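The protein record reproduced below.
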Amino acid sequence: MNADKVLDAKGLACPMPIVKTKKAIDEIDSGQVLEIHATDKGAKSDLTAWVKSGGHELLQDAEEDGVFKFWIKKA
């Protein structure tokens, strides 16, 4: 999946992946896609909840070699 911006949040513990995601999503335009890479196991539930509360859309998520990847479309 193509992303307009990629955020590397690997090695960061909660709540930093969410903090960095919020900052990154503020830097892109509505309708653009942010790809996030995180290693924190809590990132999946945290990001899923954050996406819903912000009205954004979680397009896809995957796990690859211990790295969780998320593609979020900005509302």
Notes: The chain has one domain: 5-73. The chain has two helices and four strands.
